[in-house]
Amino acid sequence: MSATALLSLERVTKRFGGLTAVREVSVEVRAGDLLGIIGPNGAGKTTLFNVIAGYYRADEGRVVFDGHDITGRPAHAIAGLGLTRTFQIVKPFGNLSVLDNVMIGALTRLASTREARAEAERVIAVCGLGPHAVARARALPLGLRKRLEVARALATRPRLLLLDEVMAGLNPTELGGMIDLVRRLHADGLTLVVIEHIMAAMMRLAQRIVMLHHGEKIAEGTPREIASDRRVIDAYLGEEFVLAEA
Amino acid sequence: MARALARHWGALVVFGAAALVPIVVRDAYFLDSLVLILLWGALSAAWNVAGGYAGQVSIGHASFFGIGAYSAALLGARWQQSPWLGMLVGIALSLAAGAAIGYLSNRLKGPYFALSTIAFSQVLLIVASRWRAFTSGSEGIPVPFRPGFATLGLGHVAWVYLALAVAVLYWGIQVWLEHSRFGYRLAGVREDEDAAQALGIPARRLKVIAVTASAALTSVCGTLWAQYVGFVDPFYVFSVDLSVRFALNTIIGGMGTALGPFLGSILITSLETYLRATLSGVKSGFTGIYLIVYGVVLILVVRFVPDGLAGVAGRLRARRARAHA
Ligand SMILES: Nc1ncnc2c1ncn2[C@@H]1O[C@H](COP(=O)(O)OP(=O)(O)OP(=O)(O)O)[C@@H](O)[C@H]1O
Ligand SMILES: [Mg+2]
After folding, report:
1. Contact flag A80-B181 (C-beta cutoff 8 Å)
2. Number of structural domains found in chain B
3. Can you tell me the ipTM of this complex?
4. Beta strand A191-195 with A34-38: parallel, antiparallel or unpaired?
5. Interval A109-126 mean pLDDT
6. Could you tell me if the CB of A57 is within 6 A of ligand 1?
7. C-alpha atoms less than 13 angstroms from C-alpha of A25 in its C-beta half-sphere
8. pTM, to two decimals
9. From A54, A79, A93, residue closest to B191, measured CB to CB
């Protein structure tokens, strides 16, 4: 384990009954990284996030965040340390306004509701949700709910943000906006781990990519290396992708 | 100040009217109704802290009502203690029982939680009605009337102002829940526990705190009610009817709104008082009639104003605001 790792997974295993959803996965994320995670449906990507963020307890292995062993700690305590996540199936506070949703995130670090409201307004503007601030969260279309998911997490001022398919289901305009947003956050110094199926987006964003397959890490490298890795092509990308990229 | 007035005009009207009534009306029957409206309103507000603001719908809050009622009645009847001391004992017991119920809400969700709260109140009913040596069993216990504030032996007018003070306090607690950090985070827990935890919110702890506070607030009103009515009957104070009433007043008035429980209480308590007066010749099955009335009102509210009476007031205000814009 290198001394500079912000997050390190050490041989993490998670089983559901007889199914091993994540098997002995080791990954390191250094401060300032933007790490991508890819893999076919059911590969164990979301399960890995759930283990890191404290929603599931790892059966084996350790999760270390910023020097703290967070294995088995409750989710809220991990978020309190500055590690937070979004949900693949978005979980807005449906009956509350966009502003209130993001404000609740801001109240993680701020004691005053007035300051939290100001902070929420700032984050909402950064995420391009300004015109929708007073809308009820459940009334938003999917593209905006995905943005809200990111905005709410950002308002907690995380040091590490896990994004679970925040680009899935977006139209091309929304997708472009989301890619820009993630880029900007990264440029501002945020460390991110991003799960995404959209390879084109991943190739443009990630510095490094980890490929999961049947719960195992089968490849890791730069986007270039991943795109030309035989195992990745066979298991996930297919020959068409390689031809299209060439 | 003007903003606060604009936001809380409904509360000002309701509580202001209640404060003025005893000055102009001396009719004991009318004042009695007013005390009950305020007490049932405060009780529904107490229920709202758990059911509306924390999303933990209990149908067993009669448990805490009964604990408060019995604590004061037993201490008064058996040991000649002040009901205020009984109130404190009731609060302590309800805090413990509320924490247990709150803990349960982390294990059981939705209907399972609601059912377990009913079961809890039924267990207390059995204990209170069977433990003859201590509670006088199913006969119930009279609460001695000893004039004075220290013994809560008050006249009608004094009771109106005491109930009003409690009502305003409980309303204020709810308003605080709408504007405080704790309240915002609790709303997050109510809406989605997983998402709340991702924001660093200790969801389970917040739920337990809310349910426990709700229990203690209910207990205080149980004590007051016992002193006001002067008699504690186990089949009444631990009844499911009573638990349903707290919930129903709030649902009809508007869950998770500060004024809703009081609006619901005004509607339901007046209706009930009216029916009691008009149907006083009819001997049998009052409770049955009230259930039908509850049911009809509930259906009408769910059909026409799903966010409750307070929701209607909110919409009227929004319309006025637009008209002025
Ligand atoms: N709570 C659970 N209980 C039982 N099995 C689960 C649970 N969560 C996930 N699984 C199983 O674990 C495996 C990995 O699921 P996971 O959701 O992590 O995949 P994923 O890589 O995120 O897939 P996708 O790309 O479709 O989101 C799947 O076979 C899934 O059915
Ligand atoms: Mg997934």
Report:
1. no
2. 1
3. 0.91
4. parallel
5. 95
6. no
7. 32
8. 0.90
9. A93
Residue B173 zone, left/alpha/beta (φ > 0; ψ -120 to 50; rest): alpha
Nearest to A128 by CA among A74, A84, A75, A185: A185
* Chain B interface includes A123 (CB < 8 A): no
How confident is the model over B77-110, as pLDDT tens digits? Answer: 788 888 888 889 999 999 999 999 888 888 888 7
The token pair at A160 is 């590490």
Inter-CA distances, B46 with B51, B260, B270, Å: 9, 12, 20
Contact B37, B71 (CB under 8 A): no
Q: Is A168 on the interface with B (CB under 8 A)?
A: no
B122: containing domain: 2-324
Q: What is the CA radius of gyration of chain B?
A: 20
Give the nearest ligand 1 atom to A47 CA: 18
b or e along A76-91 (b: 16 or more beta carbons within 10 Å of the residue's beta carbon)?
A: bebbbbbbbbbbbebb
For residues B91 and B1, what is the distance between their CA atoms, to the nearest angstrom? 34
Q: Could you read off the pLDDT of A66-95 as tens digits, one per residue?
A: 999 999 999 999 999 999 999 999 999 999
Q: What are phi and psi of B247, to 5 degrees?
A: -65, -45
- Angle separating helix axes B62-79 and B203-229, nearest 10 degrees: 50
Residue written as token pair 């900007």: A184
In this structure, which amino acid lies at residue B6? A
Task: Find chain A residues with C-beta within 8 A of B194's C-beta.
Answer: 55, 75, 87, 91
Residue B134: which CATH number? 1.10.3470
Residues forming a β-bridge with A209: A36, A221
A115 near A134, Cβ under 8 Å?
no
